[in-house]
Each structure stands twice: as structure tokens, then as C-alpha cells.
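tool=predict chain=A
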Amino acid sequence: MKKWQKISLVTLGIVVSVAAAACLFLIATPYKLMNQESMESTDKVTVTENSGWISFFPFEEKEEAGIIFYPGGRVEAAAYAPLGKMMAEQGVPFIIAKMPLHLAVLNWDKADKIIKKYEDREWIVAGHSLGGAMAAKYVKNNPDKVAGLILMAAYPSEDDDLTSFKGEVITFEAQLDGVIDEEKLTKADSRLPSQTYTFILQGGNHSQFGDYGLQKGDNEAGIPKEEQWKRIVQGIVRSF
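tool=predict ok
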């Protein structure tokens, strides 16, 4: 092997190693929950956590289906605890799935394990951003296992046509979302069923679907995060 070839291989190896290290660093440093208080049980909601998910179960449950939630990419499951707790306070069980390396794309059928564990209840699958896209993929492949789909700043991929899905579908779009691809979001409307209802969160942004601070590339919100969660909960309760 010629000297220049050896140098090229060494250089390539260094570049690949640096790129891999950067990817591992990004994956290993997820957006984390800011307020740990939302992970504590109260006299209205029992919060439990295991290796697979975080559960928010109300003491006084209603007859509505529970929600299985997929986190956004590089966001830890606990970062959506405030939303889960607020839903449970309305009598709706809320389970946040933990994903490998905080990426739902690596375990998009995680809902199967939760549904099997709590098979005596109907479930709605929901997700934020990448988690929403993977929730849509789960519904596409398991339409008879779920009662509905909730997309938060998310849309189904080109491979996941949901137009024949019979369950209820609602989507939440934040007015000041600086992360989502608006063109792809608009095109994806044709892949959703006719019974889809969309809520526009005036003053909301991409990051405030969870509680993990301002995500890179996002716009500052025009409303407090608590107000954004409140509007999401109200929209879900009204729809299901």
C-alpha cells in the first residue's frame, strides 16, 4: 500500500471516529426534565417508574381510554411528566414509553408491551415530534389495537398512510414552532383520515410540549409552558 493511501485511510478513520463520537455524545446527552416535582405522586395521581416506562395513574379513573406516549427525539421520557400528570388529574391514565438512546425510531412498537401489560383497557397512542411519527407508524401497523392517535408537532412519514384508520385522530400544532418542517407537515395531511381534528396552539412552540427548556432551533414561546400543557389536556379531554 502506498504512503498516500495509508495517510488517506488514517484520515478517514479519524473523521469516522470523530463523527461517531459526536453522535454518541448527542445521544447520550438528552434534553432532561427541568422540574422534578412533576415526577412525585400526589393525593390525585400515583406516579411509578420502571425500566420500560413511567406511569401516571389517577386515583379516580374515568371510562376513557388511557394514553401511551412516545417522547420526541433526544428527549428523556421524564421530560413529559407534567403533561402526563395533568392528564391523570383529569382521570386519564398516561404512560410515557422509555426509548433506546432516547429515540423512538429504535423501538416504534414499544406500545405492544404496555398494551399487553394493561390489556383490560383501551389505549390511544400519542407522541411528540419524532415520537409522534413513530406513534403513527405503530397505528399504521396495528390499527385494531388502539382507539386513536394524538400527534403533537408531528406527522406520519411517507410510508405510513393512515387514511383508512377508523379511530379518532387529533393533532396539535404550535404557532411559534421553529423546529417542525412546515412543508412536510402540510403534505402529510393527505395521509391522515378524514376524522382528523387539528388544534392550533396560539403562542405555543415546539419545546413546550415537554418540560426540557428551549430546544435548539426553536422559537421563544408567547405563552407559559403551563398554559400550553393546559390547552393540550383540554383538547384531548374534549376529543376523546
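The first helix runs from residue 3 to 28. Strands lie at 45-49, 53-58, 66-70, 94-97, 123-128, 148-152, 168-174, 196-201.
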